[in-house]
Amino acid sequence: MTESVKRVDAEYIAEAEVGEKIEVNKSAVSVFVADEGDTLWDAAKALSARPDDIQSQNPDARAPFKEGQKLFYFREISFEF
Predict the structure, then answer these.
(1) 37 vs 1, 11, 25, 53, 67, CA distance in Å?
(2) Tell me, what CATH number does 62's domain have?
(3) Which of 9, 21, 50, 69 is the most core-located residue (most Cβ within 10 A)?
(4) What band does 1 get if pLDDT is binned at 50, 70 and 90?
């Protein structure tokens, strides 16, 4: 039996810092208006949402986004009375 070894170069996060506290968006609907070259990750950070959730709600959107392109994000809101 012959074993083979494959070298793999990988990137990783070696260190992280706590940044400023941000308010989580709790509105039912949000709109992200892109700047030229924005990515899905930029939209996710701005909307406080997961990138795959944004993509599933905007299936025709392709990053990098164009200036003024709009992405809509709908959240499930629960009310307590």
Answers:
(1) 50, 23, 23, 20, 7
(2) 3.10.350.10
(3) 69
(4) low
